[in-house]
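Appendix B: complex inputs.
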Amino acid sequence: MTRALYDLFAGPLALGAFVVCLVGLAVRGVVFLSLMRREAAAVPENVRWGWAGLSILRYLLPVNVTNRVNPLATAAGFVFHAALIGGALFLSAHVVLLEQAWGLSWPVLPGLWADVLAAAALAGLVVLAGRRLLDPKLRGLSEPRDLWLLLLVALPPASGLAAHLLAPGYEWWMVLHVVSADVLLAAIPFTKLSHALLFALSRGVTGSDFGKRRVGPW
Amino acid sequence: MVVHAAAHDADLSPDGVDRAAIRRVMRSKAGARLSLWLSICSRCGQCAEGCHYYASNPSPEHVPAFRLKPLFELYRRQGEVDREFLERLRDIDYGTCTMCQRCTMYCPHGIGIAPLVHAARGVAVAAGMIPQGLAKGMANALEFGNNLGVTEEEFLETVEWQLEELREEMPDADAPVDKEGAEFLLTFHPRDIKFYPQNLFNYLKLYNAARVDFTLSSRAWDSTNLGLFAGDVPTATRLAERVVEAAEALRVKALITAE
Ligand code: SF4
Ligand code: SF4
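Resulting structure:
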């Protein structure tokens, strides 16, 4: 039974989740750009591409102002994002699946990294969740779905780690791993997780707006 | 005050909220940026560090992203809101933000809190809920050309008085009014004219000492735009046009606004 479930969620449903994720994100990006274009007909947008690019770069690297004023949250955010994305893309178990399914392949990280990355991602998430639950300013801001999403994002690395470390229940942990990963992928375009792509558009637009006033690549 | 929506297409709720007007304004504000920003705010709170409200009183309501909550809910409920909701929107979005944009510099996503607060204010305007002091200032600006209701005569007298004082220490100082072809048109905060004329003295001294070729306009000298601040776009446009028209009529090269 676990085998059948696993095959379903790591096979056709995983493909479905990828399609929903990529098509969904693409639609959101296209809708944004076409709205921008329509508005530019009334008020010319006059994009400053250089400032837009710098602004995106500045916030992809920990060299911005939030880094200085809030080092713990920034560190947790960067570790979590890097470990989650790095793990999703470069763990051998993931790349093997892709290779079997679509014949795609690229270099992978040594096996030891699986546990390190999962643990790092979870540590980052624990810090972020802890702040959300304990810091009064974040408690006032948070919606229930912010916590649900944190949980959803934590499930794939947590279940992957559990499958590796806890011998009993391996099959069930793996089922949870693929199910939660599918749900997470499919949820990206419909939630604030859409910042995976839209971050760059928003940062770019703002960088360009601030660049027009020559106040820096904010 | 601004008059809105003919009664026949109004969708009035029992407590007198014109939902049709609110929905119209919501549609006009729902541009590329608004939809994007409302959907990707992570509620991470990084923006708090940029806000002077939060710096002086670090309460949860002073986190910039908190200003987005009413707008977020408004769109989620598609404008089906009551007076109590709108009063909360008004208090949050007029009462706790100066639209300075500092928070955007701290937001990893670069979310423009100020434009979103401006959009929320636009909704309050459509619901006829501009705070009274602001409405009065706007009415003044429309009637007198400045938000404190200074008359043209009072303005010219103040300029003359300060120029006289200035000439005691700078005999060749000048303050040309409505001089065509000057390089710059100077505008002022009305407060500086009405309550702190010493500031006008200082401006004149500075520009004379720097030998800047400037002029003042007898009609359009208010550097503020309360329409913009209130989120009332038609009024903002009219007030801005007034200054632009004066600048064009005087054929100046640039306009200097001082705060
Ligand atoms: S920093 Fe940006 S993303 Fe984070 S809560 Fe503030 S506005 Fe939202
Ligand atoms: S724009 Fe408003 S919320 Fe943002 S820093 Fe300025 S006052 Fe605070």
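Residues B 50-51, 53, 64, 67, 97-103, 113-114 surround iron/sulfur cluster (ligand 2) (CB under 6 Å).
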